[in-house]
């Protein structure tokens, strides 16, 4: 038991060090990014194409750091009661533009006056964005892209947000790894979306379930206790 305490203390310190380092990396990155953007704007430069690549890669490092910080930060959790459907609607409104661009048909269903849950809105928005982005990325190859979101009360005083895509699905050997940090099957994925979402769901006493069939699609259910 004592050994476990030492172990988790060590992990905590390692996490804090890594988070500190991530912050420190951001400062020189900002300087590099500033000059690179100047080079990107100079279309006459023989290095213009390289500058664009450097810029894309800087943005990628930035995304990894941002997601990593979300994961390691012992964020203070301000929780308040709210309606899940309001947050889901908000996230979908934010993503409307990318639905249009990528020809994704989206459909949201819920009963009026769903019971409220208690939680941190910003963190839960992050979870919905992560899951919906994954759904969209999984449908990239489909001709008809259908994203269905249903919010409903379960029989066990819980409320479920069900996010269904008709994308490529997840094979069992991949499914076994999707909560591992940095595990990704995408060329430019960070592999942090699922682990972040899982962490936030646990902090809300909720859980994630996945139902998937290769070449048919994936249904991700986020279940929350009702307050
Ligand atoms: P990333 O999206 O950066 O790859 P995530 O942690 O969000 O990282 O997801 C990890 C992996 O889980 C993805 O690379 C993908 O293989 C798989 N995955 C997650 N959601 C879906 C989905 N809806 N359909 C198919 N595969 C998925
Ligand atoms: Mg993702």
Automatic annotation (TrEMBL):
Chemical reaction(s) catalysed: ATP + protein L-histidine = ADP + protein N-phospho-L-histidine
Keyword tags: ATP-binding, Kinase, Nucleotide-binding, Phosphoprotein, Transferase, Two-component regulatory system
Ranges of residues in domain Histidine kinase: 20-227
Enzyme Commission number(s) of this protein: 2.7.13.3
Molecular function GO terms recorded: ATP binding; phosphorelay sensor kinase activity
Record protein name field: histidine kinase
Residues of the full protein shown: 129 to 355 of 355
């Amino acid at each position: 038991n004592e050994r476990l305490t030492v172990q988790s203390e060590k992990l905590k310190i390692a996490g804090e060090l890594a988070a500190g380092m991530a912050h420190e990396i951001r400062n020189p990155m900002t300087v590099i990014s500033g000059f690179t953007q100047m080079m990107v704007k100079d279309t006459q430069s023989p290095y213009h194409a390289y500058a664009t690549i450097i810029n894309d890669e800087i943005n990628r490092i930035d995304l990894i750091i941002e997601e990593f910080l979300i994961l390691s930060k012992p964020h203070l959790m301000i929780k308040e009661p709210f309606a899940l459907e309001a947050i889901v609607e908000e996230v979908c409104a934010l993503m409307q533009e990318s639905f249009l661009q990528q020809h994704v048909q989206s459909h949201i269903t819920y009963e009026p006056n769903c019971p409220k849950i208690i939680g941190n809105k910003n963190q839960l928005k992050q979870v919905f964005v992560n899951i919906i982005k994954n759904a969209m990325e999984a449908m990239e190859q489909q001709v008809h892209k259908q994203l269905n979101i249903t919010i409903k009360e379960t029989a066990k005083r819980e409320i479920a947000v069900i996010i269904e895509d008709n994308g490529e699905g997840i094979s069992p050997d991949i499914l076994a790894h999707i909560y591992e940090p940095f595990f990704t099957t995408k060329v430019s994925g960070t592999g942090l979306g699922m682990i972040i979402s899982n962490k936030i769901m646990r902090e809300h006493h909720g859980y994630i379930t996945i139902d998937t069939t290769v070449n048919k699609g994936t249904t991700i259910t986020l279940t929350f206790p009702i307050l």
